[in-house]
Amino acid sequence: MFRVIAWALVSCTLMFILNNYLTLWWGWPGAASSSALGWVQKINYLACVAGAAVYVLKDKTMSLRADSLKIYAVSAFIIRGAFWMVLIVGLTDMFISFLRVEGLLPGLVGEQLAKDLGRSSYRGLYVHVPLIVLSFVIAAFTRTLGFTWLALLVVIAELQIVISRFIFSYEQAFMGDLVRFWYAGLFLFASAYTLTEEGHVRVDVLFAGFTEKRKGLVNAVGSLLLGASLCYVVLWLGMGNKSSIINAPLLAYEVTQQGFGMYVKYIMAAFLAIFAVSMMIQFAGYFLEGVADYRGDPDKRELATQSAH
Q1: Is residue 28 part of a domain?
Q2: Do 195 and 301 reside in the same domain of the chain?
Q3: Is residue 259 part of a domain?
Q4: Measured between alpha carbons, how far is 47 from 63 in angstroms, rounded to an integer?
Q5: Less Cβ around it within 10 Å: N or C end of the chain?
């Protein structure tokens, strides 16, 4: 039952993102509609729950901790893809913005393409989207959590602003945009990984004195009632309709008012969705770990030792 709950939470979260895509970009009516396509979107959620149950029943001997590691792997893939996205898109968009502000773009790509790249919708669809797809392809073949390097990239980006400003007296809007782009990604993408490593600040009044069994119960219940509900609120308020705070910038390819800055503001709105999805998935795995602690199951190190043998 606990494994079904966790996997249903993961699959329904991913289905919510898919349904949101179908509604906004393909014109589907949404799960709240009573039309035929609306019913398809409703049934999708039921299929997710049924699929989770079938997956669990296929291997009833799978331990809770082993399943939690699989769930963490899903979240890790999303985070890796997001890291490569901010790295590749950030550098590419900064380069295009540099060429535009210096008037070099028409000479390289022609007048018409230079004008097109000055439109956020064109740059988003024909430059950013292919690079985002490429980023998640790369993430499928890498196993390192790239956000650990993102901290270094933020420092380098800020350092080049200081050097160019105070040594060469040169500064443009896209330079600060790159720092904010990477800085936002660092904090929002690293949150899910930090959760499993117990790195978040815990306001501890009673928890430290609990037994391991009671700590597991608190973590399991808190993951569902507090953690998952928080992520649900972020997703629902941010992506509930076309005018929501995440969907609206995405649909409009929203950019800052600085015309020669980077055209990535709409992607930064999507960072909130990535944060909520990765945290929701991470809370599902954390829920299984909490239940395993409550039951006294072997911990991660013992599980790794058993797998090695």
Answers
A1: yes
A2: yes
A3: yes
A4: 24
A5: C
Same domain, 175 and 128: yes
Cα–Cα distance between 225 and 67 in angstroms, integer?
20
CA 47 to chain centre: 23
In-domain check, residue 71: no
32's torsion region: left (phi>0), alpha (psi -120 to 50) or beta?
A: alpha
- Segments of 70-224 assigned E as strands: none
Which two structure tokens, joined as six digits, stand for 108?
Answer: 């390289």
Same structural domain for residues 106 and 246?
yes
Tokens of 272: 């909130």
245 and 101, same structural domain? yes
Domain enclosing residue 2, as ranges: 1-62
Tell me the per-residue pLDDT of 187-231, one tens digit each, with 9 for 90 and over. 888 887 777 666 666 667 777 778 888 888 988 999 999 999 999
Beta strands in the chain (DSSP E): none
Q: Are 286 and 219 in contact (CB under 8 A)?
A: yes
171-180 average pLDDT score = 89
> 55 and 83: one domain?
no
Q: What is the C-alpha separation between 248 and 301, in angstroms, rounded? A: 45
User: What's the distance, CA 93 to chain centroid?
Assistant: 20
This prediction's pTM: 0.88
DSSP states of 245-305: TTHHHHHHT---S-TTS-S-HHHHHHHHHHHHHHHHHHHHHHHHHHHHHHHT---HHHHHH
d(Cα 275, Cα 1) in Å, to the nearest integer?
27
| pLDDT tens digits, 246-288 | 999 999 999 887 667 899 999 999 999 999 999 999 999 999 9
Instruction: Give the pLDDT band of residue 43 (cuts 50, 70, 90).
Output: very high
Domain-located, residue 268: yes
What's the number of domains the chain is made of?
2
